[in-house]
Design a protein that fits this description.
By secondary structure, the chain is α+β, with helices and mostly antiparallel strands. It has 2 domains: 98 residues, Alpha-Beta Plaits; 124 residues, no CATH class. The chain has 9 helices and 4 strands. A 4-stranded antiparallel sheet has the order 2-3-1-4. Helix 6 packs antiparallel against helix 8. It starts with a helix and ends with a helix. 20% of the residues are buried.
């Protein structure tokens, strides 16, 4: 379940990064009081680039209306200002193809060097951070999961050991009756495998309950971090892999116990 939690968190971070990368945009803020010819020159330079998919001009008034629509609680701040604080800008959407970060950064630096452009806002850094956090969460999950895999291995091994000792007389009777080694071992191997399968299935069920309850319990306190520190349920491949991995742990834990404590 611990491995599943970190895989789920990693899935959410990776999904967030993919959503950001599919909406890869840059906002070029312009100096105020530019002429129409200067704006057209910058627009042509943006649209002529092979990296750009779409260019939208946002006037200072449009920017003010967007801010008022998204942040109605901050109306008092705007009312205390004598003038519109938002500059005009060009919102540039890049193509969704696999673009080289070096080409994008070079393009941004080229446009930013224009005198009429005052600043640039680009979300590439956030995308890289999301992928880095996703890899970190997955690595931590594999590390802790590996430790717990070893713990589960020894727990199941000891359970099988106790079952072997409790059935010592039955095993002796089977030996005297001519039972083969495999015939004696199969029930114990099946027991360990079934324990692993039920453990994996139970962990998926508890993980599903956690994903349903966690946002309700902490959603209001996390605020803007709620979209990042949240869980996305495992994919079908990950779920099947987790159950089969648990079954393998049970099987080999039983096999290890039998090889040490059941001399047949």
């Amino acid at each position: 379940m611990t491995l599943g939690i970190f895989l789920s968190l990693s899935n959410n971070l990776q999904h967030t990064a993919q959503e950001l990368s599919q909406n890869l945009t840059a906002v070029f803020f312009l100096e105020k009081d530019l002429s129409d010819n200067e704006k057209s020159a910058i627009s042509d330079k943006l649209q002529n680039s092979t990296l750009v998919f779409d260019v939208q001009f946002v006037s200072a008034l449009d920017a003010l209306e967007k801010f008022q629509g998204k942040f109605p609680d901050l109306q008092d701040i705007l009312e205390n200002l004598d003038k519109n604080p938002f500059p005009p800008s060009f919102e540039v959407t890049f193509k969704e193809d696999d673009l080289s970060p070096e080409d994008i950064f070079a393009f941004i630096e080229q446009i930013q060097s224009t005198e009429q452009v005052s600043d640039v806002q680009f979300n590439q850094e956030w995308i890289e951070r999301m992928y880095s956090l996703s890899r970190l969460a997955r690595a931590v999950g594999y590390f802790l999961g590996g430790i717990l895999v070893l713990a589960s291995f020894f727990i199941i091994s000891n359970i099988i050991k106790l079952n072997v000792f409790s059935r010592k007389d039955e095993i002796e009777i089977l030996r005297l009756s001519g039972a083969t080694n495999m015939f004696i071992r199969i029930p114990f191997l099946m027991e360990g495998t079934i324990l692993g399968v039920f453990g994996g299935a139970l962990s998926l069920f508890l993980l599903f309950i956690l994903i349903e309850i966690f946002p309700v319990y902490l959603g209001s306190s996390l605020g803007v971090l709620n979209d990042l520190i949240s869980f996305r349920f495992l994919s079908l491949t990950q779920s099947v892999f987790l159950v089969f991995a648990c079954a393998a742990i049970g099987f080999f834990g039983s096999l290890s116990s039998l090889s040490r404590f059941l001399k047949v």
